[in-house]
C-alpha cells in the first residue's frame, strides 16, 4: 500500500530492556516458579488481536464469514493496552484469529507498538505484501512468522483457499530483504507449518522452499481437528513419522532448522521433552481479543469459552487476578485440568517449546528441532498412548472456535472461494 511509504521516514528504535521490564520479568518468573496464583507482575507476552477478519478461507480454520468492520479492534482498546501493558511486556504479538495485514492502518499500529520499544511479532498468511511495514518491523528488530502449509501451487490453493504460493513467495522475498538490510538475525523471519495428512508428502519440500527463500526455522505444528477427521495425523502414524524424519533431514541438508512446536501425536513424542505442568502461559501470557475479551493463551484464540473477562466491563488487573484466572493457575499447578480448559490437556500430551524462550529464557531447553535431536519423533504404541482431543465433542464448531473440533467436511474442503486480496 502506497500510504505505507511514509513509515519509511519515521525513526524506529529496537526493543529496550528497561529497568521496569527487567524487574517485571524477574518477578513474573519468580511468581510462576513459586506457584503464586495472585500476581504482582504483569504479562511478559501480550497477544493483541487486531482483527478477526481474514482474506483467506483455509478449510482447517474458517467457515466462510464475510468481512465485517465490527470485527476490527477499536483503536481505543489498542491505545489502552499500549499505555497500560506494553511498558511491562517484552513481546507484543499483533495477530489473532484473522489476518492483521488486511488492515489499512496495520503499519500505524505496528509503529505505535514500536514506540514502546517492545519486541513486535506478527503471524501472517503472507498474501499481502507491505514492504514499508516489513522495513519498519525489521528496523525495530521485530519477528514475522509466515504460515506456509504447501510447497506446490496446487496444494497451496487447496489448503490456503483464496491465496497463492506466488504471493507468499513475493512477500517472503520482501521480508528477507528488509531483514538483511537492517542486519536482523535470520530467525526473525520464519515459517509456521500446520502438518496434516494433506501435506505430509510436501513437508520436506516446504523446508527446501524455506531454504531457497533463506528462511529458518520452519516450525511445524500438527493440525488440530477431530481425531476422526481424514486430515488428522492419527490416520497414519507411520507415514507421519517418515515425513517428519525426511523434513528434519532436508533441514540439515539445506541449513534450515526444523522445529516441532508440538509432537505430531502423543505416541510420536519425545516424552522427556513434552511440556510439564505447570505451563507458563497462565502466568506470563495474556491474549486480548478484538472486542476486549481477555484470554490466557495464543492457542485458544477466537473462542468465548476460553476468555476470562472483558476490558469492556473490567480493568485488566481485575481479570488478571480475578477468580477465574486464579482457578486456572491452580488447575495447572495441580495438573487437574477441568473440562472447561480441555485444550490444556493437549499441551501436556504433546507440546514442546515454541517461542516461550523469548520471555522465559530457560524454556530454550524445551526445544525439539533438527538441531537439538537427531530423531525428532520416536514411536511408541499408539494403543497405549491415545490421542488427546483438543476440545470436547460438544464444542461449538460453527464459527466460535479457532480450531474446528468436528469433522472438516469434504464440502468445506472443496470450498472454492473467489480471490479476495
Ligand atoms: C489463525 S492463524 C492467524 C494468522 C494468519 N491469518 C495466518 O494464517 O498465519 C494463526 C495460525 O494458526 C494456524 N491454524 C489455523 N487453523 C489451525 C488448525 N486447525 N490447527 C492448527 N493450526 C491452525 C494457522 O496456520 C496459522 O499459522
Ligand atoms: S489460518 Fe489464517 S489465513 Fe487461514 S483462514 Fe485462518 S486466519 Fe485466515
TrEMBL record:
Gene3D superfamilies: Aldolase class I
Keywords noted in UniProt: 4Fe-4S, Iron, Iron-sulfur, Metal-binding, S-adenosyl-L-methionine
Cofactor(s) needed for function: [4Fe-4S] cluster
InterPro entries: 4Fe4S-binding_SPASM_dom (IPR023885), Aldolase_TIM (IPR013785), Elp3/MiaA/NifB-like_rSAM (IPR006638), MoaA_NifB_PqqE_Fe-S-bd_CS (IPR000385), Radical_SAM_PqqE_MftC-like (IPR050377), rSAM (IPR007197), rSAM_sf (IPR058240)
Chain ranges of the Radical SAM core domain: 40-263
Protein's recorded name: SPASM domain-containing protein
Native species: Streptomyces luomodiensis
Amino acid at each position: 500500500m502506497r500510504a505505507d511509504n511514509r513509515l519509511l521516514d519515521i525513526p524506529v528504535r529496537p526493543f529496550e530492556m528497561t529497568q521496569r521490564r527487567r524487574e517485571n520479568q524477574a518477578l513474573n518468573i519468580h511468581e510462576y516458579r513459586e506457584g503464586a496464583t495472585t500476581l504482582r507482575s504483569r504479562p511478559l507476552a501480550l497477544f493483541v488481536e487486531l482483527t478477526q477478519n481474514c482474506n483467506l478461507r483455509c478449510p482447517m480454520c474458517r467457515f466462510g464469514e464475510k468481512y465485517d468492520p465490527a470485527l476490527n479492534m477499536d483503536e481505543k482498546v489498542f491505545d489502552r493496552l499500549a499505555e497500560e501493558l506494553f511498558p511491562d511486556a517484552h513481546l507484543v504479538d499483533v495477530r489473532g484469529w484473522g489476518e492483521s495485514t488486511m488492515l489499512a492502518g496495520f503499519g500505524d499500529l505496528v509503529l505505535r507498538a514500536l514506540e514502546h520499544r517492545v519486541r513486535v511479532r506478527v503471524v501472517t498468511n503472507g498474501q499481502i505484501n507491505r514492504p514499508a511495514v516489513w522495513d519498519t518491523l525489521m528496523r525495530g528488530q521485530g519477528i514475522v512468522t509466515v504460515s506456509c502449509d504447501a510447497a506446490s501451487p496446487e496444494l497451496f490453493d487447496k489448503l490456503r483457499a483464496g491465496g497463492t504460493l506466488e504471493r507468499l513467495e513475493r512477500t517472503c522475498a520482501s521480508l528477507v530483504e528488509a531483514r538483511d538490510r537492517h542486519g536482523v538475525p535470520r530467525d526473525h523471519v520464519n515459517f509456521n507449518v500446520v502438518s496434516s495428512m494433506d501435506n505430509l508428502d510436501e513437508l520436506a519440500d516446504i523446508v527446501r522452499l524455506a531454504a531457497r527463500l533463506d528462511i529458518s526455522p520452519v516450525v511445524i505444528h500438527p493440525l488440530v481437528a477431530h481425531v476422526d477427521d481424514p486430515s488428522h495425523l492419527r490416520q497414519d502414524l507411520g507415514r507421519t513419522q517418515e515425513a517428519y524424519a525426511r523434513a528434519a533431514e532436508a533441514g540439515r541438508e539445506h541449513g534450515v532448522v526444523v522445529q516441532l512446536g508440538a509432537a505430531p501425536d502423543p505416541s510420536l513424542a519425545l516424552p522427556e521433552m513434552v511440556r510439564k505442568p505447570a505451563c507458563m502461559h497462565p502466568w506470563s501470557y495474556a491474549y486480548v481479543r478484538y472486542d476486549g475479551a481477555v484470554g490466557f493463551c495464543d492457542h485458544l484464540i477466537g473462542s468465548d469459552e476460553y476468555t476470562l473477562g472483558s476490558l469492556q466491563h473490567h480493568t485488566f488487573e481485575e481479570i488478571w487476578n480475578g477468580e477465574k484466572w486464579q482457578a486456572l493457575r491452580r488447575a495447572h499447578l495441580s495438573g487437574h485440568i477441568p473440562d472447561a480448559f480441555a485444550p490444556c490437556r493437549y499441551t501436556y500430551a504433546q507440546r514442546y517449546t515454541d517461542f516461550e524462550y523469548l520471555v522465559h529464557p530457560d524454556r530454550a531447553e524445551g526445544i525439539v528441532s533438527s538441531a537439538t535431536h537427531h530423531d525428532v519423533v520416536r514411536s511408541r504404541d499408539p494403543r497405549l498412548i491415545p490421542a488427546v482431543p483438543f476440545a470436547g465433542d460438544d464444542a461449538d464448531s460453527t464459527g466460535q472456535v479457532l480450531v474446528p473440533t468436528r469433522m472438516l467436511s469434504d464440502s468445506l474442503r472443496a470450498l472454492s472461494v473467489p480471490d479476495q486480496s
